[in-house]
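Exercise: predict the fold of this chain.
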Amino acid sequence: MTDGWDWRQPAATPAPPQPPVAGRAPLGTHGGPAGGARGVPGGGPATTGTTSPWWSDALADPWRDPTAPTAVVLPVAPVRGTEPEPVADPDLPRRPVLRQVLLVAVVAALLAGTLGGALGYAFAVRGGAGGTVLGAPPQEAPVAAQRRPDSLAGVAAKVLPSVVTVRVGGHAGTSEGSGFIASADGHVITNDHVIAGGNGKPTVIFNDGSSAPASVVGQDPESDIAVIKVSRTGLRPVEFGDSDSLAVGDPVLAIGSPLSLANTVTAGIVSALDRTMRAGEPGGPVRYYAAIQTDAAVNHGNSGGPLVDGAGRVIGVNSTIKSLVADGQEAGNIGLAFAIPINQAKRITQDIIGTGKARRTVIGAEVPGPGAAPSSTGGVRLVAVEPSGPAAGAGLKAGDVVLRLAGRPLSEPTDLIALVRKFAPGSVVTVEYRRGSSVQNASVTLAADAK
């Protein structure tokens, strides 16, 4: 009896062969060889003679989904490094990035103000990511402030304690100039014109601001050198140099109290040597000397102060400046200052300390006075020669034209006077002169004036 349905199993239709899953035994067996299960596509009749389990018949079920897998695949832990690269779903909505960029920019700007200084210091000092340290570690202030002894600052520090300001009262007011300590027992060298008009005791103001009265030891108006003395212990005298060893271009410092500005240091070079100077105030003595010319700034008040070389040795006494005059007013420094050579000033100082007066060096001849026309052929013509003087002893005569003295060319009468006074009495100098058409040489031993 039937109910209209045919319950007989239709003949199984072989399914297309399926590849076995690697590492797995095909279903329909009990661990036996693959492909032997009854009703499994690709397999033949069972070879074991054992009845297959009931679920193996499900493969022949007409109601079975033909696309269903015929094997069960269990999940396996992925092998490290073989994971598929993640791919974003293009259909998902994108997050806005502009706000993120702006936020990052704002945060970076805020951090820059806070961290910029620290990071800049770290990269500048530490040398960036490499860790290289640039520069030496900071020194302590006293060490960093030190200067080399041969630097301008080192020279100034050496000489300044020995430089003083000199003041002396007079009928026309107070005269002020400079000076420097020449001996540990208190002798101070200055210019004669600094104290010449005074009617009282000079006052010396030291580098530290302290002061002491001074007494006049002696003056030499013609050389513009004066010596005064203070009673004080612990003084530091200057170191004297050799003005005869100077060369044009040598560095120099001028130290003193220009325009009442104490402890002033200016720098320059030797601009010229043996520059003839004829100086003096109206009604006063006329001073002649072969000066050291410098472009160091020197003004009123520098008079009597030291001109020092690059080693801090005194090589001159600042005495005179050239200036411009406009509307009756004399201008200050224009880069033309003149100093008495220290070899000459030191000799005169020793004379003054020893005898109270200085000797004047002479050649024993007369030259034309101021205003005389210079020789058209150069040199200085001798107007007269003292019979027993140095020039006569060397064979010179009136009318001879002196061309050179000690190798220095002469063109003005004052040149001969200034150069002769530069040398000490007893010095032997070579004189080149012209007599008629012949040029001759003579050795002259200079002498001290008998006055």
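Check your answer against the key: Residues 18-72 form one domain.
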